[in-house]
Specification:
Two copies of one chain form a homodimer.
Chain A (H helix, E strand, L loop, with lengths): L1 E6 L6 H13 L7 E7 L3 E3 L5 E3 L2 E2 L8 E4 L5 H4 L3 H5 L9 E5 L2 H7 L7 E2 L6 H6 L3 E2 L5 E4 L2 E4 L5 H12 L2 H9 L13
Parallel strand pairs in A: 1-2, 1-6, 2-5, 6-7, 7-11, 8-9
Antiparallel strand pairs in A: 3-4, 10-11
Helix pairs in contact in A: 1-6, 6-7
């Protein structure tokens, strides 16, 4: 079974959880053994816009996942100061795919995953990320460094998830998933 | 106060609620008096991918909303046969903006809102929509007919919401909201 976790938290940016959630779930139309879980520190996390999102797993599930996807949002600023929280992650970028949307890059940096690497993030987090010693690529919507990818600007999630699926499966699977959400007449192709 | 409702139901396509939800909430960064509610027939509706989504209003709130946004999903097939459900809507396309994503167009048709009009929908709903007497524009991601707009292919929601904001406010507001979710380096501009 191939497993993905989406890391949620209080005060997450709605679309940065739900776009990845929907796209990754579409893999299940091709591989029934693919599993995606939203994980967090509580049974329910509240989004910036007020959605009460139930989690389906705990943080430690990230440590055995094939793909770990860090969402973004104002809530990341609490997480990066919380050593107890950070210690729960035992990620291995040699074996796992690890990626972040927008300010989720701050969590990657706090976990020491971006040491010596460059990354991208949302404009509001650029100075913070640079202050953590990361070389920020201000104008790139996605920065890939081996098994680690950071993306910025909510809709960049499409390319980020596409990259992840290509790495977990192949480009045909990635193309099929993405084609299923493209606007009709703009490459849209249904997989169900 | 300007009001929008997003119509949810059991078995909704996750992204077709949440993308509009996130985008419409961004209007509140510009106009604090804008309100967006997710409405339904129950306090909680379950998505195709298993999200338990709490509603914040009832169907009848659509009847006084400035914008009514119909989400999509397999669940629409139940709704269009449910006369009691359909009777709860008293929409006025002369005064309200009414729009749908993908198979949400089936609900617009069932409500009689597409009589004599053309529309677009997801490939899996094309025959059904045509069978309801609607001229389906197979290859268009958005079809605008006065105050009614139908869009198809999940990411077409970006253009659909942009159209709605332009109509509710102006193009500057619409541009600012959309720019805030574009990929960095591809027109992205932060409004918060």
């Amino acid at each position: 079974m191939t497993k993905a976790t989406i890391v949620a938290f209080d005060n997450f940016t709605d679309i940065d959880v739900f776009l990845a959630w929907d796209l990754l779930n579409r893999i299940r139309l091709i591989d029934k053994n693919f599993q995606v879980k939203i994980v967090g520190t509580k049974t329910v996390h509240r989004s910036v816009c007020g959605i009460e999102l139930s989690t389906s797993g705990i943080i430690e599930e990230c440590n055995k996942a094939d793909l770990v996807f860090f969402a973004s949002g104002p809530g990341t600023r609490m997480l990066i100061k919380d050593q107890e929280y950070l210690r729960r992650f035992q990620l291995n970028s040699g074996k796992q795919l690890i990626c972040s949307m927008c300010s989720g890059a701050l969590v990657l940096a706090a976990l020491g995953l971006l040491e010596g690497l460059s990354a991208t993030t949302y404009p509001t987090a650029v100075h913070e990320l640079a202050g953590m010693g990361v070389k920020v690529e201000h104008d790139k919507h996605m920065v890939i460094q081996g098994n680690i990818a950071t993306a910025a600007g909510c809709l960049a999630a499409v390319d980020l998830v596409k990259w992840a699926i290509e790495r977990l499966y192949d480009s045909a699977t990635a193309d099929a998933v993405i084609a299923s959400v493209l606007p009709v007449g703009q490459g849209q192709a249904c997989i169900y």
